[in-house]
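Hi C.,

You asked whether I'd gotten around to modeling the 223-residue construct. I have! Everything is below, sequence then structure, no commentary in between.
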Amino acid sequence: MKKIEYIVLMLLVSLSAVAQKESANVREGNKLYKSSKYTDAEIAYRKGLLQNPKSFEANFNLGNALFRQKKYPEALEQYSNTAALQPKEKGKIAAAFHNIGNSFLSDKKYEDAIKSYEKALKNNPKDNDTRYNLAYAQAQLKKQQEKDKNKDKNKKDDKQDQNKPDPKPKEQPQQPKPQPQQPQMSKQNAQQILDALQQDEKNAQDKAKKQQARGTIKSDIDW
């Protein structure tokens, strides 16, 4: 992301012109800010505001000092106070809304950031840094919306899956076991078999009688 903070030390460029209107504390705050001593700069700006609460430079640069310390909600409040001063210069109004957008952007409030950048561009259409940050915020909002959409879809799918009954395992249909084929027998065949069995039995009896006859010892001697 390019140039998240729009450092309005353009105000410091013209500091010599307004130096007489600014308090010593505000001027000291500017020096500390440029030396990256943001906490000390915040203290100096607050002292300056006690002397001149309507100082655009003191209010605005206090917001910058808070932003650099990552105190985004406080910085947002300070930038909003700055915009409420309604300075006559459109460049100052644009700068205020630009940094309001930066505060929203740092807090991932992309829709609010976009609106603020649009207000800044309305007052300063040639500000490429604001235009860049606007495009960045729009891209981040799109990603966030897609992410939220996918999250909602996953929750919906999970809920539907929970309501579905557990699928029953498929069973293979049982095939009937083959039964042994019983031979078909006609009455005629049955009679033939019965006659054959009876004949066999008769033959067996006759054979047994013959064997008994052969085994008998006859005696011709009389006693």
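If it helps when you're writing up: Residues 10-155 form a domain with the Serine Threonine Protein Phosphatase 5, Tetratricopeptide repeat fold (CATH 1.25.40.10).

Thanks,
B.
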